[in-house]
Amino acid sequence: MLYTQSLMVPPSTLLIDAAVETIQLTYGRIQYIWLHFPPGCRGQVYVALFRSLTQIAPATPGQGIALDDVLFGFPTDLVLDEPPYQLQLAGWAPVSSFAHTITVHVALDVSTQPNAPQTPQSLLARLAGLF
């Protein structure tokens, strides 16, 4: 499943007053995350992704990703196995004179529940699957 959320970051927004949007998801495994920075950001708009209070991107706490005119993606293997099934996108732009909208896309695999016990297959069943 692909989830999308946009975040409008007002001009002169400080980190302490960051704009925040919540991305509502469901159980599963996040496989890939993309951040779209439109033309005009000029590296002046910063964003960070959080799961509850834990910063997941960038990995360095207190830092942000700041780019311009790019769709930046990275693989991940983040398991959402306990509610709340959500991420927070925070953005700030301390020296920007204009508002900017950053969009995040999240690819989530929901094919199996993360905490579901896997039933072991018999040797015969595994061999039959080879043919």
Give a description of the structure.
The chain has 1 helix and 8 strands; from the N terminus they run ββββββββα. It has one helix spanning 123-128; strands at residues 2-9, 19-24, 28-37, 46-51, 54-57, 70-80, 86-92, 100-109. Strand 4 and strand 5 form a beta hairpin. The protein has a 4-stranded antiparallel beta sheet with strand order 1-8-3-6, with no helix packed on it. Strands 2-7-4-5 form a 4-stranded antiparallel beta sheet, with no helix packed on it. It has one domain: Jelly Rolls (Sandwich). It has 131 residues and is mostly beta strands.
Write the layout of secondary structure elements.
Layout: E1 2-9, E2 19-24, E3 28-37, E4 46-51, E5 54-57, E6 70-80, E7 86-92, E8 100-109, H1 123-128
Antiparallel strand pairs: 1-8, 2-7, 3-6, 3-8, 4-5, 4-7
Based on helices, strands and strand pairing, what is the structural class?
mainly beta
Tally of separate helices: 1
* CATH-defined fold name: Jelly Rolls
H-E string? EEEEEEEEH
Strand count, sense and barrel status of the largest sheet are:
4 strands, antiparallel
Defining traits:
1 helix; 131 residues; four-stranded antiparallel β-sheet; 8 strands; Jelly Rolls; mainly beta
Question: Quick recap of the structure?
Answer:
5% of the residues lie in helices and 47% in strands.
